[in-house]
Amino acid sequence: MASSIRVRATSSGETTEVQALIQHPMDSGFVKDAKGELIPPHFIQQLTFEYDGKNVFIADWGPAVSKDPYIKFSFKGGKKGDDLKISWIDNKGASDTTTAKIQ
Amino acid sequence: MTMTNDGLAATRRLIIKGVASVALVGLGQLPFSVSRALAAANDKYPEDAFKQKSEADAIKALYGKNPEPSDKVKLDAPEIAENGAVVPISVSSSLADVSSISILVSENPNALAASYKIPAGTVPGVANRLKMAKTTNVIAVVEAGGKLYSASREVKVTVGGCGG
User: Fold this and answer.
1) ipTM for the complex shown
2) pLDDT for B21-62, tens place per residue?
3) What 3-state class would DSSP assign to B127?
4) Contacts of residue B123 in chain A, CB cutoff 8 Å?
5) Which of A55, B49, B50, B92 has its CA at a distance of 20 to 30 angstroms from the CA of residue B140?
């Protein structure tokens, strides 16, 4: 199965810029479906980026983050060819993990 | 004789220096491990803060204190967002020792939208996309050096992004 996470991590020598796009409905619990019934909340709660055994970024999200969330940040260090591990867990306990090579 | 004395004095100075640096290292260890333990505790998802309705309550639940406005917190948001379901918002800061960045939307059903932990070595900035129910203030809160700073900006929303 294809991963729900798409990542691009680019090293500029000093810093590594990370952009991630995750496929997730991010249902807020306030939206009604075609039958007029509320769609229960379903959203990513925590997203972590790990490099060299250390967390370099942790996102705690509520349902107000847009569907198919996008995120961008940078961290100091990070070598071309090294691995960056990305994982998320949602409010229903589902999760996904992927590893991206820094370019 | 004078030579020996000088030599002795120099050795003594070296020893004192050595002892002093060992003592400093020893002292340094303790606060470090304590802050590490705190950081681990902070890795937990702040469920309570996300349940708060108002931004003041959410900030209190998250940090336990109030922010002061600062021009060192840079909040980038569109003046008018045509689609409230996808509003690009980015926050950065020129403050030192930033440990966390949170973004709140005043009149959303729950004010807190996202909270980011910034470990040492990570650039204090983040870009993401949020949902906004209607025209209201977006607030960025930055925790730096144990203090809270904020910036806010009104975003006009043409079509709300929270359904209903």
Assistant:
1) 0.91
2) 544 444 444 444 444 444 444 578 898 999 989 999 999 999
3) strand
4) 15, 73-76
5) A55
| Cβ-based contacts of A75 with chain B (< 8 Å) | 121-123
Contacts of residue A39, defined as CB under 8 A and 6 or more positions apart, other chains included, come to A27, A29, A31, A32, A33
Give the span between the Cα atoms of B125 and B42, in whole angstroms: 19
Domain ranges in chain A are 5-101
| Inter-chain touch A73–B86, beta carbons under 8 Å | no
> In chain A, which residues have their Cβ closer than 8 Å to the Cβ of B53?
none
pLDDT of residue B9: 60
Which pLDDT does position B30 carry in this prediction? Answer: 46
A64 three-class SS: coil
Residues 6+ apart with CB under 8 A from B69: B149, B150, B151, B152
Give tens-digit pLDDT for B67-85.
999 999 999 999 999 899 9
Size of the A and B interface in Cβ pairs below 8 Å: 108
User: Is residue B95 less than 8 Å (CB to CB) from chain A?
Assistant: no
Q: Alpha-carbon distance B129 to B79, whole Å? A: 15
Percent residues over pLDDT 70 in chain B: 71
**Which among A48, A49, A59 has a CA at the least distance from the CA of A84?**
A49
- Name A50's bridge partners: A55, A85
Q: Does A41 touch chain B (CB under 8 A)?
A: no
Q: Tokens for B142, please give them.
A: 């930055």
- pLDDT tier for residue A31 given thresholds of 50, 70 and 90: confident
